[in-house]
TrEMBL record:
UniProt main location, coarse: membrane
Protein name: Adenosylcobinamide-GDP ribazoletransferase
Catalytic activity, reaction form: alpha-ribazole 5'-phosphate + adenosylcob(III)inamide-GDP = adenosylcob(III)alamin 5'-phosphate + GMP + H(+); alpha-ribazole + adenosylcob(III)inamide-GDP = adenosylcob(III)alamin + GMP + H(+)
Gene Ontology MF, one: adenosylcobinamide-GDP ribazoletransferase activity
Length: 253
């Protein structure tokens, strides 16, 4: 529970507090990132289901998306924009890292962020017009699996930035593989719960595969360009995996 609260503090704007804090907890709390994703997805699903009863699907989708962004403070969206600003052009590692630290947003970041928001809103609008159990399942799965994908990248790569100036220094240290194993355990439990809700196994398999493919592609991209992961790269991984899982849930096949 203590590590889950640390994960909530790190990934969301929820006003949760602990009486004390140990830096090692931030490193170990990554095992609960998918569980935080379930919470964020559940909030988005509640807004989507409620709003769909009152307004057209596209309005319900935008409200659900706004709810999840508000809950996380745009944490992952910021990482997506910074990553594409830094890696969208042809620059060296040092220049790319400097661009990531720049608070200003450039054309690559603006395009990536805008397309991400538009695509997620469109996918949620499609889900809002289908049986709502599918919409709930898609939001839970997309947020949980996307955060598990980020943990997978974190465990499989060294830190690629300047460790001494990392915003969350404990996460710039080696993350134990057992934490990724526990994150996958949460995803397994969620998959069982979604299957019990009636989600077809092939749909779940497609969603899991989509998240894994994004994690592998991002791992390769970050390794080649930066020699490892950064916090912004993990945010981009989460966003792209979220989109991939939503695409898997909305595919007509």
């Amino acid at each position: 529970m203590r590590l889950f609260i640390v994960a909530l503090q790190f990934l969301t704007r929820l006003p949760v507090r602990l009486n004390r804090f140990e830096p090692a907890w931030l490193n170990d709390c990554v095992r609960h990132f998918p569980l935080v994703g379930v919470l964020v997805g559940a909030c988005g699903a509640a807004v989507l289901v409620g709003a769909a009863q009152l307004w057209p699907a596209w309005i319900a989708a935008l409200l659900a998306l706004a709810a999840t962004v508000a809950l996380t403070g745009g944490f992952h969206e910021d990482g997506l924009a910074d990553t594409f600003d830094a890696l969208g052009g042809v620059v060296g590692r040092d220049k790319a890292l400097a661009i990531m630290k720049d608070s200003r947003i450039g054309s690559y970041g603006a395009l990536a962020l805008g397309l991400s928001l538009l695509l997620r809103a469109a996918l949620l609008a499609v889900l809002a017009q289908r049986p709502l159990v599918g919409a709930v399942a898609a939001l839970l799965a997309s947020h949980a699996l996307a955060r598990a994908a980020a943990v997978g990248v974190m465990v499989s790569l060294p830190y690629g930035g300047d460790v001494e100036h990392a915003k969350a220094k404990p996460l710039a240290l080696a993350v134990a593989p057992r934490n990724f194993g526990m994150a996958l355990g949460w995803c397994g439990l969620l998959s069982l719960a979604l299957a019990a809700m009636g989600v077809p196994p092939l749909r779940l398999l497609a969603a899991l595969t989509a998240a894994a493919v994004v994690a592998l592609l991002m791992r390769d991209w970050l390794r080649r360009r930066l020699g490892g992961y950064t916090g912004d790269g993990l945010g981009a991984t989460e966003q792209l995996a979220e989109i991939a899982v939503l695409l898997a849930f909305t595919a007509s096949a």
